[in-house]
Amino acid sequence: MARHKSNAPPKVTRQPRKQQQSSGAERSALYARREAAKVLHTVLRGDAERRAVASIKSLVFSPSVRNKRGTFALVCETLKYLDVIKDVLGIANVLNSKWKRQEPLVYIICYDILFGKETPSIGDAEKFLVRRKDALLSGLATLLVRKRVKSVEELLDHSQLNGHIKQRYVRVNTLKMDVDSAVKELEKLYKVQKDETVPDLLVMPPGSDLHAHPLVMNGRIFLQGKGSSMVAAALQPEAGWEVIDACSAPGNKTVHLASLMKGQGKIIACELNEERVKRLEQTIKLSGATSSSYIVGSFMLWLWNHYRSSGPSPSFSFSRSQLILLYNTNYDSIRLHKLAVFQKKALAHALSFPQVERVVYSTCSIHQIENEDVVSSVLPLASSLGFKLATPFPQWQRRGLTVFAGSEHLLRMDPVEDKEGFFIALFTKTNNLDNPKASELPEGECRRRRKRFYPFLWPKVFFRAWNGRLHGSRR
């Protein structure tokens, strides 16, 4: 029986639309895992070297990270389970030399395999680990038996008791909510304590997940670390001040200043990067500080034009771009020296303005060259201008390295003891000959001099320089 060949074209089987969308979602998840691995690598490297790095949120909001929300959640969750993941990998012993060199990516993928909602299906590293899923699950079961616990949650509690996971800090946005009301609401989910150092800061157990909490989503509370919250509080701004924040994105410190100023006064928020400006705008809008915050571009150009046209400006803070830290994490001695030279110039510049009465210099570095050495180098100038070192947060025990007289006034946070590294120096002007008390001034003159100028310096991650208030009429 003869068979006739058909001239009809072969059938093309189209993938269902849902399957095509799923493939797109998988590719998006693949990119998110790679982006999260880069951020995690930076964080873990800083921990290994006992060096402070930018906050996870700052790293994630780098312009190079596309899926910011997904990357942020993935990094936070992987860090939450990191001790468990490391123990499971040690028991399962499934990694070869190739994948041991890519540990941050392995940790991210293992989180998805062991604790995530969906098992990854594309990517070489993903396929390698998925083929060993049974060994990983067996390792997790063995770990539960060894630790004599019945669940992963108990494993996390065990890690927290051993101090491997830092506490969750939450700052209350007092523009929208008082501290006691926030405590009452958050206590429905977790144990809450008031921080002993920063009045509007709350302390919660490690692993407290508030990213989707209504108070976070509507801007009544902000997830902000203790060191970051101490910077604005060290300035002690008052209602009616005018402040310039020169590298303000993503904006947590900007809106903290607005909160401490009770929404009264003016904050000039400077940011050059367009992507980060968008994030800054979102933060300001979320906080409710829109009436007191104004966004401009280049801080240096704005400041120069403002001074040239109108004389002394309102109070301000100066910052070098965060991108330096985000893209250059290899802090060799040459780079540290260059940073320190810049920081000395910026601090000296801040101290030199005639109307400045207070300067807060802060970094998230633990290196002496960027901290004590910078402060020591400007002390002769500061003294000649009538400044002395004051003591921010006197109750804080960890002070500066004893490398010069007066270093006991400096404040340090240790990345091991305090789970993050910070440095704060506070300069105050003691020469008040040109600034008589309000009671000694005529009524009109008193009103004109009500705003004085206090700089606020932050050189490392968000290198801040001057926040303050100054003599002059309110704008």
Structural write-up:
- Helices cover 44% and strands 11% of the residues.
- With 475 residues, the protein is an alpha/beta fold.
- Strands 8, 9, 10, 11, 12 and 13 form a six-stranded mixed sheet that branches. A four-stranded antiparallel sheet has the order 2-3-1-4.
- The radius of gyration is 26 Å and the shape is globular.
- Residues 17-21, 308-330, 433-442, 444-455 and 458-475 have low confidence and may be disordered.
Topology:
Blueprint: H1 17-48, H2 56-60, H3 68-80, H4 82-92, H5 97-100, H6 103-114, H7 124-130, H8 133-147, H9 152-161, E1 168-172, H10 179-186, E2 193-194, E3 201-204, H11 214-217, E4 221-223, H12 226-235, E5 242-245, H13 252-260, E6 266-270, H14 274-287, E7 293-296, H15 299-310, E8 317-318, H16 323-327, H17 333-352, E9 358-363, H18 372-384, E10 387-390, E11 411-413, E12 422-429, H19 443-448, E13 456-457
Parallel strand pairs: 5-6, 6-7, 8-13, 9-13
Antiparallel strand pairs: 1-3, 1-4, 2-3, 9-12, 10-12, 11-12
In short:
Residues 158-430 form the SAM-dependent MTase RsmB/NOP-type domain. By secondary structure, the protein is of the alpha/beta class. It has 19 helices and 13 strands.
